[in-house]
Amino acid sequence: MKIIRNSNLCYACKTCQLICSFHHTKTFWPDRSSIYVTRNPQDGTIKWRKDISCDQCINEKEPLCVKYCIYGALQAIKEAREYD
After folding, report:
1. CB within 8 A of 61, min separation 6: which ones?
2. Prediction pTM value
3. Which stretch of DSSP H or E encloses residue 68?
4. What proportions of the chain, in percent to the nearest 5, are helix, strand and coil?
5. Which residues contact 83 (CB under 8 A, 6 or more apart)?
6. What is the pLDDT of residues 2-14, one digit of tens each?
7. 34 closest CA partner among 13, 20, 45
8. Which domains are delineated in the chain?
9. What is the pLDDT of residues 63-83, one digit of tens each?
10. How far is Cα 75 from Cα 65, in angstroms, rounded to an integer?
11. Based on CB atoms within 10 Å of each CB, which residue in 3, 8, 13, 47 is the most buried?
12. Alpha-carbon distance 78 to 83, whole Å?
């Protein structure tokens, strides 16, 4: 599975970063997240990065970042080599 972000829908609210940290630590601790969201204060550009520690919420029906993205900016898609 691959998590993709639609940059036109992302507003850097950091909900994905918070829920990811909760998945890993059972606390809202953004520094312990596998997702990092930053906004450049000069030009407003948003950077979104998924760390190698992302397990895509393996015990959930869908990645929690996708489930809780209030703007619908994140989507989980199956990669071609995955089979049902």
Report:
1. none
2. 0.85
3. helix 64-68
4. 25, 20, 55
5. none
6. 999 999 999 999 9
7. 20
8. 2-77 (3.30.70)
9. 999 999 999 999 999 877 655
10. 9
11. 3
12. 9
